[in-house]
Amino acid sequence: MKMAGLESMVVEEVRPAEKPVDREKTCPLLLRVFCSTGRHNSPGDYARGNVPQNELQIYTWMDASLRELTGLVKEVNPETRRKGTYFDFAIVYPDMRSPTYRMREIGVTCSGQRGGDDNKTLAQVKFQIGNYLDISITPPNRMPPPMRRPQPYMNNRPY
């Protein structure tokens, strides 16, 4: 019995160069943004035609970068301007197989610091008109609350 030789090949994915949008001639889209402090809104908050209360409406283009969107949020939300504030971006989109929404994280920016996700555009992260943008804003020097372990006994006696 003769075995066929196995070969492997690494192929670099080549993306077509993104054409810049002519913002003078192209109509902007309405981007519905929902911000919350320290966490993302739940996908369930978007169910049955509802949306979270904290809506920010931005007119922008598909070539808008996460850094540009961070700047627009900072313009209307002064407490997010402090250096070291993190902006964790996610796209909220309808699930085509069920009547629910899904959330996909797309990048993080930080006030006063450059990062690898700063130049990602809405087009590059496959944002589709009609989707929502959900941003978790974490102020500087604020850690998420620690996970609490349930106590095995209520009387807290030493072991």
UniProtKB/TrEMBL annotation:
Biased composition, Low complexity: where in the chain?
Answer: 150-159
Q: Which GO terms describe its cellular component?
A: nucleus
Q: Name one Pfam family in it.
A: SAP18
Extract one GO molecular function annotation from the record. Answer: transcription corepressor activity
UniProt cross-references to InterPro entries, sorted A to Z: Hist_deAcase_cplx_SAP18 (IPR017250), SAP18 (IPR010516), SAP18_sf (IPR042534)
Q: Residue ranges of region Disordered? A: 138-159
The question of whether NAD is a record keyword is answered with no
Q: Which Gene3D superfamilies match?
A: ASAP complex, SAP18 subunit
Alphabetized, the UniProt keywords read: Repressor, Transcription, Transcription regulation
Q: Which domain of life is it from?
A: Eukaryota
Q: Indicate yes or no for the key word Repressor.
A: yes
Instruction: Spell out the family assignment given in the record's similarity comment.
Output: Belongs to the SAP18 family.
> In UniProt terms, what function does this protein have?
Involved in the tethering of the SIN3 complex to core histone proteins.
**Protein name per the record:** Histone deacetylase complex subunit SAP18
Organism expressing this protein natively: Euphydryas editha
